[in-house]
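Action item from last meeting closed. Structure (189 res):
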């Protein structure tokens, strides 16, 4: 009973609306946005998002190519070092998306490249045109690399972002290189 009296008192104090009055205050049109202003903001946000996506995609593909180049370079150096330690020759080759080291016909090490990377012959990296992708045999010699001469291992994805390792004639080791797209030049890392 007491609750009903409190509710009655509260509603009685409020009063009722008369003709011409509204329950909420009117919105001043000068304080609101027009549909054109809202559409302009949406278009600007869309353009900025598109630019950010393109830049982000390029960065992701470039980093995958760098990872591939470093994997190939470090694998070849490690395989050559292991072969020297064991006084063996090693054959290193790039098949499908795997780099493989073989001693005496037995696979002693292999490493899978990043998703979508496959061997890419017929290129020129740093002025070197000889591909080692089909296999190269090490020799017994002093220095880090047991491979004489020059050549490269290279793998590319479907967008032609490539990672590779290059052995120059005057160098003892391999250098990592990347290419960002089909028409881009090779960059040393």
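Sequence:
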């Amino acid at each position: 009973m007491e609750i009903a009296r409190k509710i009655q008192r509260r509603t009685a104090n409020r009063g009722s609306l008369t003709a011409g009055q509204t329950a909420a205050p009117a919105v001043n049109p000068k304080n609101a946005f027009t549909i054109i202003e809202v559409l302009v903001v949406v278009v600007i946000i869309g353009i900025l998002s598109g630019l950010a996506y393109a830049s982000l995609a390029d960065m992701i593909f470039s980093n995958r190519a760098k990872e591939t180049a470093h994997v190939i370079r470090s694998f070849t150096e490690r395989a050559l070092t292991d072969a020297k330690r064991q006084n063996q020759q090693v054959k290193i080759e790039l098949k499908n998306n795997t780099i493989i080291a073989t001693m005496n016909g037995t696979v002693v090490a292999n490493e899978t490249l990043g998703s979508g990377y496959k061997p890419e012959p017929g290129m020129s990296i740093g002025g070197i045109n000889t591909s080692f992708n089909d296999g190269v045999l090490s020799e017994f010699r002093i220095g880090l690399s047991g491979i004489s001469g020059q050549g490269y291992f290279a793998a590319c994805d479907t967008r032609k972002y490539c990672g590779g390792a290059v052995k120059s004639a005057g160098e003892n080791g391999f250098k990592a290189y990347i290419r960002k797209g089909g028409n881009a030049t090779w960059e040393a890392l």
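Note appended to the action item: The two ends are 85 Å apart (CA to CA).
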